[in-house]
Structure formats: structure tokens, C-alpha cells
Design brief:
The protein has about 525 residues and is an alpha/beta fold. It contains 23 helices and 7 strands. It folds into 2 domains: about 325 residues, no CATH class; about 120 residues, D-Maltodextrin-Binding Protein, domain 2. The termini are far apart.
């Protein structure tokens, strides 16, 4: 590929990425709902750290870093930097995820270029197009979650690995080890998936090299030195990863180890899948249903993982096969919880493998009859056109004009600044973590627990200046299925009982018709 063609393709890619990024920012981030429970938790970690930085309290910074044990601190460090520069908000947090998504798109293109000098650019553009229209990838590009960072690290590590194969500079192997090791500081699951994936890839290459080593007497000393140096650099990677793991687990080892094992081998969110066949087919079904805007294309994504002979045509694809299948097998047979987001970090590799398989097939059929190329494309594209509205909806979603952001703004504007607020609600976009994030700068004392006195028992003893906030959700509201437990029902029953007995009164309410929600504020009589 000529330099001019390379830069032209890169310029087109950057233009497309900026356009799609702008659509996601305007239509999904700026118009997005309040944080979900997990989004808010990640955001709160960043809030802790940015407050420590602003106060120049490095002891507190270290403490707040170390107490992030369920999800280690790398994401929160980066998020606190974003908060420091752009201010603390839902938008700022989600833009960080968008940035990782856009950088991942660029890496998909750059890795694909290595497949073939002649077709690498085309393979890259098809893989990028699939990634930009993937419901799973676009979703996490607009949510404050760890998936974007995990996928970016995996892609960056693979790109560095491919560079290392072409060069003999040891420092690149150190950089590769750091990228792999950073998975430990991002999410225990990612470390569990990424490190074995690279280990398997290394062991697969070691086999032929050990055989070659047995023939060293016939091939001379230079070959022996090359082999020893290659093995030495691989050992450097292992050493750096062990050092990074040791640094993290050196503090609170027993607790972190228990959390690590619990995160992997206990049911902790996601779906509980029963039955061998259901477990075996879970992720194949996810690949078909969730990875592409069209289930028809999703079927071909899955089929592309079953035709490893394309690795003969595109050498680098065999690396991607090992990464993808190592992760899929680990997720299928060793992780009891199942969830679409767990395979997010290998989704870009699946798109690249499919794109390479597509051009392999097109090359083969073109040799026989060019009309067959058109037939293959029609088979792929015509059924996929039925799902175009779904692809359109990714970038132009039908958001209600009102959501829980406006509800919490109403609560904040209604109660006094120094009030004691009770709001023990746990629904998807109105939960203790989301509420804590929204009221992070308020002087009001916010409690997400029920008042200490039982319903109807001496409520006046609770103290002065106390307010009780809730929402009523109408039938047909987009929030009807968002309950995470029965807390909203119990809270509204508590409020109704105490209002009926004359212990509290309704002081304000507002109907949000667009979202089917009525927000209410009570106080004591």
C-alpha cells in the first residue's frame, strides 16, 4: 500500500469516526437518562478521587484508590482526570467511554491493515462499519462503564503484540506486558480473560520453536541465539505482568483475592443459565442477536469463527482466532454468570475475522465468475436491509423529552438546601448510587434508607426539616420494568399510611407526562 493511499484511508476513517462520535454524543449522551446503578458507582469512584486531588490530600487519594476492590482503580483514575479538566457530570463521564470507543475503532482499522497489503484497507473499513453499527458497542460507547476501556486495552495489546513480532526491540515487549497487566487494574474478569489468551497464543508459538530448538545443532549457533533471545523477551512479558499483579494484591491480599474469585466463579449479576446445551449455545446466540444491527449478519459473524482456513490466506487472523476462542471457552465453561457485555472485549476481533472471511470468499468466487461476487453480496445485504431501522435507531433513538434527570433536578430545587432527605428507592435510573451522585454537591443530608422509626410510630421524633421524596410510575411508562427490588412499592405504602394518619403531608408534586412519572415531596406535619 502506498503512503498516499494509507493517509487517504486514514483521513476518511477519522472523518467517519468523528461524524458517528458526534451523533452518539448529541443523541445518546446529551439526551441520555440519569446514571444506572453501575454507571453511578463508577462515577462516584471518580468523584472521590477528584475531590482528593483538588484538596491535594494524597493520603486520601491512596485510600480511595485502594478501597475500590470490586472494580480496581484504572478507570476511576482516568475519570477523575476527565472530571478535573471538564467538570463532574454525567456527560463528562460518558464522553470518556465514547473516547475509548472511537480510539478502538481506529485500532480496528490499523490492525486490519496488517492482514493484507492489497486488501487490508477494505477489510478494515468493513470491520469498522460493523463496529460503528453494533448495538452492543454503541450502547457502551454512551454509558459510563468499564467495557470500553477493557476493549481498548485488548486491542492496544494485540496491536503492540503484532508490532513486537515484526521487531526485536525489547522495550516494545515491556509496553505489551504493561498493557496486558493493566487489565488487572481495570476489571478482574478482563485480567482472567486477557492473560490466558496471550498465554495460549505464546504456547502455540512455542511448540514449533521448541521443535526447531531440537534441530539447533544442525542449524548453528546463530539460530540458537535467536531462539534464546525470543524466549528471553517472552519471559520479560511474564515478569512485568507478575510485578503488576503483585503490586495490586500486595495490599489487602486476602480480601482482594476473595473478591477476585467471587467476581469470576460466583453468580454476580448477569443471567443464570441452566443446562449444558443452554450454556453451550448462550454466547453463539448473543453473537447472532446482539453484535450486529441485523441478526442475519450476526449469523455470518458466528459462521466466520468456524472457518479457520482463512488464516492460511491472512496470517494475522490466526492470532485473532486464538484470542476469541480462548475467551469464549473460558466464559462458557468457567464463568457461571452469563451476560452479553462479558464478550464485549472480543467483539472487535470477531468483526475483523468476519471481514477477512468475507474478502477471502469474494476472492475465491471472483476467480470462478464475477457474477458470483454479486450473488454473495446480495445474500449478505438484502436480508440485512430489513434491520436498517434498528441501525438508524442506534444514532437517532426515541428518547422521551423528560426523564429521571429532570425528576432529580425537581427534587433538588424543591427541598431546602440544609434538609434531611429520605428517598429509599431502587430503580434502574433512580437508586442510591445515582441519587448520591446527583446530590454530591448539596448541603442536604440524603438518606437512601427507610426512617429509623417503624411506619406510624412516633414519626415526629425523627427531627425537624425532614422531607420524604418518591415517584409514582404510570402504566405504560418506560420505567415500569425498571424496578431493581420492591423498595418503591414499600416506600410508597409507608408514605400513604403516614399521610392517612396525619403524620406527613404532601407539599409539592409534579407530573412528567413524557416519561409517565409523578414526583412527590412530603414533609412532616
Amino acid at each position: 500500500m502506498t503512503k498516499s493511499l494509507y493517509f487517504k484511508g486514514l483521513a476518511i476513517l477519522i472523518a467517519v469516526v468523528l461524524l458517528i462520535g458526534g451523533l452518539i454524543f448529541v443523541n445518546r449522551i446529551l439526551r441520555g437518562d440519569a446514571f444506572s446503578k453501575e454507571e453511578a458507582q463508577h462515577a462516584l469512584y471518580g468523584v472521590w478521587l477528584v475531590r482528593d486531588i483538588q484538596a491535594l490530600d494524597f493520603g486520601a487519594f491512596f485510600y480511595d484508590t485502594q478501597r475500590q476492590m470490586n472494580w480496581p482503580f484504572l478507570h476511576s483514575w482516568l475519570l477523575s482526570l476527565f472530571f478535573l479538566i471538564f467538570g463532574v457530570s454525567c456527560t463528562t463521564a460518558r464522553v470518556l467511554s465514547l473516547l475509548f470507543f472511537l480510539l478502538s475503532i481506529v485500532l480496528i482499522y490499523l490492525i486490519s491493515l496488517r492482514f493484507s497489503n492489497r486488501l487490508g484497507q477494505r477489510i478494515g473499513f468493513v470491520a469498522v462499519l460493523l463496529a460503528l453499527t453494533s448495538p452492543l458497542m454503541v450502547r457502551y460507547a454512551s454509558e459510563n462503564m468499564l467495557e470500553g476501556l477493557g476493549a481498548f486495552l485488548f486491542l492496544a495489546a494485540v496491536n503492540t503484540y503484532l508490532v513486537c513480532e515484526e521487531n526485536k526491540i525489547t522495550v516494545e515487549y515491556i509496553f505489551l506486558a504493561v498493557l496486558i497487566g493493566l487489565s488487572i487494574y481495570t476489571n478482574y474478569l478482563y485480567a482472567y480473560l486477557m492473560i490466558p489468551a496471550f498465554l495460549v497464543m505464546t504456547l502455540v508459538k512455542l511448540g514449533p520453536l521448541f521443535y526447531e530448538g531440537m534441530q539447533l545443532q544442525k542449524k548453528g549457533e546463530k539460530k540458537a541465539l535467536d531462539f534464546i533471545f525470543w524466549a528471553y523477551r517472552k519471559l520479560i512479558v511474564l515478569f512485568v505482568i507478575l510485578v503488576l499483579a503483585g503490586l495490586w494484591f500486595s495490599v489487602s491480599l486476602s480480601r482482594k483475592l476473595l473478591l477476585f474469585l467471587a467476581a469470576l466463579f460466583k453468580y454476580s449479576g448477569g443471567e443464570r443459565v441452566e443446562g449444558f446445551w443452554a450454556i453451550l449455545t448462550y454466547y453463539p446466540r448473543i453473537i447472532i442477536q446482539n453484535l450486529s444491527f441485523s441478526p442475519w449478519l450476526g449469523l455470518f459473524l458466528l459462521l466466520s469463527l468456524l472457518v479457520p482456513f482463512i488464516a492460511v490466506r491472512y496470517r494475522i487472523v490466526n492470532r485473532l482466532y486464538f484470542f476469541v476462542w480462548t475467551v469464549l471457552l473460558l466464559l462458557t465453561f468457567t464463568i457461571p454468570s452469563k451476560s452479553p457485555q462479558m464478550i464485549y472485549i472480543i467483539v472487535p476481533f470477531i468483526f475483523m475475522i468476519f471481514s477477512a472471511a468475507l474478502f477471502y470468499v469474494l476472492e475465491k468466487v471472483e476467480q470462478k465468475d464475477f457474477k458470483l461476487v454479486l450473488a454473495v453480496l446480495l445474500i449478505l445485504l438484502l436480508p440485512a436491509t430489513l434491520s436498517i431501522p434498528q441501525a438508524w435507531g442506534l444514532f437517532f433513538p426515541n428518547h422521551p423529552s423528560q426523564n429521571m434527570v429532570q425528576v432529580m433536578e425537581y427534587f433538588g430545587a424543591t427541598v431546602p438546601a440544609d434538609a434531611k432527605i429520605y428517598i429509599p428507592i431502587n430503580i434502574k435510573h433512580l437508586n442510591p448510587e445515582t441519587i448520591e451522585f446527583h446530590f454530591r454537591s448539596s448541603k442536604a443530608v440524603v438518606s437512601c434508607d427507610f426512617p429509623s422509626q417503624a411506619a406510624g410510630v412516633n414519626i415526629k421524633a425523627q427531627g425537624a426539616n425532614e422531607y420524604f421524596m418518591t415517584v409514582d410510575i404510570s402504566e405504560g411508562s418506560p420505567y415500569t420494568e425498571n424496578a431493581l427490588d420492591d423498595s418503591l412499592y414499600r416506600w410508597n405504602a409507608w408514605l400513604a399510611e403516614n399521610e392517612a394518619s396525619g403524620k406527613i403531608k404532601l407539599v409539592s408534586s409534579r407530573r412528567f407526562d413524557a416519561s409517565g412519572v409523578t414526583a412527590k415531596v412530603y414533609t412532616k406535619i
